[in-house]
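User: Just a sanity check before I run the rest of the batch. Below are the structure tokens for the first item. I only need the designed sequence back.
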């Protein structure tokens, strides 16, 4: 008589969701900041406050669109019948497009206007959605290129647009700090919402209801395009292409602080990309059965919690220089990835490490945005941001080829390189803090 061994599917404890939710609410409502209260004030708002509210609404809408493809992309490729090798090829095509084309979209955004670049983001999503509705199975490569470029635009264009408008209206820097963490918070919350929306639209029947997700994405893109074109007017860009190139070259070459901030941003981009490619294979290693769809909200909830910690460094008792708390955050992120790379762990320990990693990500992203405001001129901000991602995209593409086609390295090696990059980012922040103190002392002596 044979023995039947029942395998148990691992799921996170429901108390984790409650803990993350209560922690986020507690962190926000205990924060002694005036700007958050202004967002929900019912008195007649100022012009910048109206812009803040509209941009946050638009950013939430854009995040839901991005999240629909991020959450459901792999299942959609499997629905089309793609093998693992073909999925790897689509990843390589996407990162190659981001490297060869996307690296220069930031410069184009600075020249033509950030509003137009955001409209391009929605147009790319709308184009892919319409093609899928009409054709059913459009070119996977074409869709991958369009969505990869859209994701790259999403990573810099909305932030740059917000900062430029903030500068035009002459607002205080405190409002920028709050907008940075609110954008990180709302992005993660929208990604969770997009997972709920995708599950609701599919309703367990992929073959019958897959077009409903494309319809929803197309509707959201049309709404966003109408909202942007009717709600905002953007004046013509005053800088000529020749002058822009001179300014970009001057600051990118001569200002070492921009180099340090850009390198740190690239290291974060590489580590996050490597994480989302490898986290599922790492957890299900050795045939372990795990409910990945229930872990996904835990990671994003941790990122939301980390974003609510950021304003405490400005308004609460944890008053630290941005560079100082970034050093600690990068070291913690590097240590967590090092443990994952070199030590076999139980699923519960892995999920805990992944949540800690994303909590630090929630702190790091608005902090780096604040540093860019301090050191990068607004007229070249988009170009610097997109160029800073070029080494990261090249590294991801390089490791994908070595891992997928050459079988030269393992997943743990890629994770280890991501950890080394984060440690180097901590070194960059240490140097930036050291130079900042020296500059302050020299000015004080004068």
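Assistant: Here's the designed sequence for the first item:
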């Amino acid at each position: 008589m044979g023995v039947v061994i029942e395998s148990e599917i691992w799921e996170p404890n429901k108390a984790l969701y409650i803990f993350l939710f209560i922690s986020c609410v507690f962190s926000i409502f205990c924060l002694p900041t005036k700007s958050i209260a202004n967002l929900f004030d019912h008195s007649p708002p100022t012009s910048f406050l109206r812009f803040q509210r509209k941009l946050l609404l638009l950013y939430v809408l854009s995040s839901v669109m991005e999240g629909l493809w991020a959450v459901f992309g792999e299942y959609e490729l499997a629905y089309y019948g793609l093998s693992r090798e073909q999925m790897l090829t689509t990843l390589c095509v996407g990162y190659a497009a981001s490297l060869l084309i996307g690296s220069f979209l930031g410069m184009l955004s600075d020249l033509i206007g950030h509003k137009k670049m955001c409209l391009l983001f929605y147009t790319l999503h709308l184009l892919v959605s319409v093609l899928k509705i009409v054709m059913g199975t459009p070119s996977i490569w074409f869709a991958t290129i369009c969505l990869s470029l859209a994701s790259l635009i999403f990573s810099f264009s909305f932030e740059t647009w917000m900062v430029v408008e903030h500068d035009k209206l002459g607002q205080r820097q405190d409002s920028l700090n709050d907008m940075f963490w609110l954008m990180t918070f709302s992005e993660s919350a929208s990604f969770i919402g997009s997972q709920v929306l995708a599950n609701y639209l599919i309703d367990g029947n992929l073959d019958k209801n897959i077009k409903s997700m494309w319809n929803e994405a197309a509707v959201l893109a049309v709404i966003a395009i109408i909202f942007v074109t009717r709600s905002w007017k953007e004046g013509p860009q005053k800088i000529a292409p020749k002058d822009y190139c001179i300014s970009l070259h001057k600051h990118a070459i001569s200002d070492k602080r921009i180099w340090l901030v850009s390198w740190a941003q690239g290291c974060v981009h590489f580590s996050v990309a490597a994480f989302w490619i490898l986290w599922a294979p790492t957890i299900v290693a050795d045939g372990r059965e795990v409910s990945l769809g229930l872990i996904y909200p835990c990671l994003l909830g941790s990122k939301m919690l980390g974003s609510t910690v950021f304003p405490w460094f400005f308004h609460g008792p944890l008053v630290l220089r941005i560079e100082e708390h970034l050093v600690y955050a990068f070291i913690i992120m590097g240590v967590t990835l090092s443990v994952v790379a070199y030590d076999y762990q139980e699923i519960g320990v892995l999920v805990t490490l992944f949540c800690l990693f994303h909590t630090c990500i929630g702190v790091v992203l608005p902090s780096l945005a604040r540093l860019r405001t301090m050191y990068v001129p607004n007229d070249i901000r988009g170009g610097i941001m997109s160029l800073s991602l070029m080494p990261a995209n090249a590294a991801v593409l390089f490791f994908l080829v070595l891992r997928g086609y050459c079988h030269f390295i393992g997943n743990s090696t890629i994770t280890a390189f991501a950890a080394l990059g984060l440690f180097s980012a901590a070194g960059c922040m240490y140097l930036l803090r050291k130079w900042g103190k020296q500059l302050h002392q020299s000015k004080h002596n004068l």
